């Protein structure tokens, strides 16, 4: 199988380096789950803070736009929430768990709706119900919810790391 990539891509090593960093983060998450969970909680707050700054910059830059006030308001709200979540990691962790639970809740409901489509089967309904049970466990069992966040985030970083490293090695110019 041959990958065709423009030979102008000379930075193949960036993919390898990025892959190694993703793998290192996954190893860190699996080897130190509590501090990894706290780091994820802090990053969650930081992302919201940065989103608020971006909204404020947009409101400043788009001075003549009708929705400037809305972007200014959202920016200030995101800024405040980001600061609060970064200062109170326990609150950030609970909110993160709730948001991930909502994500899976909507996915579980979506799966349940597919059981009535042509080709849907009883096992699709059972799968949707199982997802909804997992949602309940994420929301109401903090240990399960936190473990779920660490395991799936760690797996995502590990897979992404391997894929980046493999891609970088595949597009490396032949000597």
Report on the structure:
With 175 residues, the protein is an all-alpha fold. The protein has one domain (12-171). Helices cover 82% and strands 0% of the residues. The protein has 6 helices and no strands. It has helices at residues 12-31, 33-61, 68-87, 89-114, 122-140, 142-171. The chain crosses the membrane at residues 12-31, 37-57, 69-88, 94-114, 121-143, 149-169. Keywords: Membrane, Transmembrane, Transmembrane helix. Pfam families: DUF308. This is DUF308 domain-containing protein. InterPro entries: Acid_resist_chaperone_HdeD (IPR052712), DUF308_memb (IPR005325).
Number of domains: 1
Radius of gyration based on Cα positions: 21 Å
Shape, per Cα inertia axes: globular
Structural class comes to: mainly alpha
Element order, helices and strands?
HHHHHH
How many runs of DSSP E, i.e. beta strands? 0
Distance separating the two termini: 19 Å
User: What's the overall average pLDDT, rounded?
Assistant: 87
Strand content: under 5%
- What does the main sheet amount to? none
Q: Helix amount, in percent?
A: over 70%
């Amino acid at each position: 199988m041959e990958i065709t990539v423009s030979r102008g891509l000379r930075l193949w090593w960036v993919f390898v380096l990025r892959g190694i960093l993703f793998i290192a983060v996954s190893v860190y998450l699996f080897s130190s789950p509590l501090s990894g969970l706290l780091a994820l909680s802090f990053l969650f707050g930081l992302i919201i803070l940065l989103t608020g700054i971006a909204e404020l910059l947009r409101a400043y830059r788009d001075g003549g736009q009708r929705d400037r006030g809305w972007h200014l308001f959202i920016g200030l709200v995101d800024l405040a929430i980001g600061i609060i979540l970064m200062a109170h990691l326990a609150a950030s962790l609970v909110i993160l768990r709730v948001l991930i639970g909502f994500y899976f809740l909507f996915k579980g409901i979506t799966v349940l709706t597919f059981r009535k489509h042509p080709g849907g089967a009883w096992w699709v309904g059972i799968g949707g119900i199982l997802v909804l049970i997992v949602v309940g466990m994420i929301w109401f069992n903090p240990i399960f919810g936190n473990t779920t966040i660490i395991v799936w985030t760690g797996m995502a970083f590990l897979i992404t790391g391997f894929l980046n490293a493999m891609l970088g090695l595949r597009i490396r110019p032949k000597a």
